[in-house]
Amino acid sequence: MLEVDALHARYGRAQILNGVSLDVGENEVVALLGRNGAGKSTTMKSVMGLVRQTDGNIRYDGQQIRGKPSHQICRTGIGYVPEERRIFGDLTVEENLEVGRRGAREDAPEWSLDHLFELFPNLAERRRNLGKQLSGGEQQMLTIARTLMGNPKLVLLDEPSEGIAPVIVEQMARVIAELKAEGLSVLLSEQNLHFARLVSDRAYIIEKGEMRWDGTFADL
Ligand code: ATP
Ligand code: MG
Fold it and tell me: What is the DSSP letter of 153?
């Protein structure tokens, strides 16, 4: 469903990605592993149309999406949860989720709030709390939940386990398993190998803007 082929990206004169290729199939969970500064976030931002200078092919359901504006890419069915959490601290949990509906894919039924709260029971308990009253991990969950309100078929999660308490990381693993059970695909960037192995079907390793390895965790 997502095919990235010979992707190059640069910020000004700094060449960051040097021919990155990867693909994510229907109903697959794929990990993008790599050290700090390897190019994981730049790869995801390029897919989302957030890097101006790119080259190569990015196809989603067979359509070239490289060069399209980011809001249009969201509407094709790709949800993106960036590394930096974006919550509206002065809105309640429910109101934060409603914001996510705005970017929804038009041709598909929406996630109901009830369905979403089944998936995120800790958010359900706090639906009338303000965003800023949640812990960092809960805010991360809320960001993911809000992205699901846009009804994506593929979700890009940029380091979802980063800086999060182990108990929330466990919940995060359950959420990803549930997304797969619902038929979604997930591409996640991770430095936490244990977590990536727990949730993913296979992995890529990126190093200094180039793909170094891909395979299953059994081969790693
Ligand atoms: P991390 O695990 O730390 O999030 P990453 O694999 O996501 O790392 P990227 O954020 O993609 O790495 O960064 C890749 C390289 O691009 C780094 O050397 C970084 O300094 C550089 N870089 C990232 N964003 C910019 C920017 N806006 N302008 C210039 N250089 C950037
Ligand atoms: Mg990153």
Answer: S
